[in-house]
Amino acid sequence: MVPKPPLRQSSAGEIQKGLGKHGKIVDDMSPLYQRTAQSARAGGRKMAGISRYEKAALGLTAAFLLFTGGWFYARQSAAQPYTVTVSQSAPEESPAPAASGSEEERPDSLLEGEVIDINSAPAEDLERLPGIGEKRAQAIVAWREEHGPFRSVDELVQVSGIGEKLLAGLRDYAAAEPVS
Predict the structure, then answer these.
(1) % of residues, the chain, pLDDT over 70
(2) Domain that holds residue 160
(3) CATH, residue 132
(4) Residue 63 belongs to a domain
(5) pLDDT digits (tens, 9 = 90+) for 8-60
(6) Integer Cα distance of 61 and 7 in angstroms
(7) CB–CB of 5/20 below 8 Å?
(8) Neighbours of 141 (CB within 10 A)
(9) pTM of the predicted model, to two decimals?
């Protein structure tokens, strides 16, 4: 077994091996041994060196944290979209002559709280009921002319094209007033 050469410290603070058995200079110590010796010399205050892969992982982690932190900060401090509020005054009603003097202007749908009498309403008014189009309105008028006035709204199921489901949607908007 060959005795180990004594360790000595150079002026730069590096640990080197001394002369070998035959007076030749022995190579420097292994990097692991050098790091351990440096850490021991520093009294554990200095962290041992890290590999370049560890440096790359730490760098990527730091970059990721900076990026996500900046992204969240930018989203919180971003300007909110503009809100534009527009108001329009009601146009002045001027008495304009009607296109045809006998025809009144009718709304396309029911007014709030309005109930239509199915015994006296023309087909145009019946079309304003939910689920009733032009053909069904004509069918209601034809049934009314053939069989007389409806005694109740429930008799609408006798009209072609009106079933229980449609009738359930009509009950709040239709009434069968007795004809005088």
Answers:
(1) 58
(2) 116-175
(3) 1.10.150.280
(4) no
(5) 555 555 555 555 555 555 555 566 666 666 666 665 444 558 899 999 999 99
(6) 40
(7) yes
(8) 16
(9) 0.41
